[in-house]
Amino acid sequence: MADTMPVENGDSLAKPRILVVEDEVLIRLSMADELRHAGFMVVEASNVDEALAVLRADTDIEIVLTDIRMPGRLNGLDLARWIRQNMSHIRVAIASANVEPEMRREFDAVFGKPVHMADVVAKLRQLLPSEEQYGPRDG
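Above: the chain's sequence. Below: its structure in token form.
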């Protein structure tokens, strides 16, 4: 039998793919778990260099959710602007304690930390094409 990726609920390949870029491991894990529970396939990166490697290798990423401040030569805003210039089909969401008003005009979604994951999930679903706006719903 050929090597295959594990399939959750039989439809993993059809789930929207999101890249979460966050250097704080507990925050990243928590966000990723919540997004998986909401029906997303989640790829994680701890810095911009990792995120760029993922984006170059994984052409199915639909949304990037990134923090702004993180270690390395580039920050989350650099990443978000790179995506806008080079992969404009990918939606960009910012989650940061350092939100500036102009970010709301520049990117698809902006969340101040601490984030409320129900709000994040709802907004990210809105960013997807209508046929992909599915997943577990609360109440």
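Confidence is low (pLDDT under 50) at residues 1-12.
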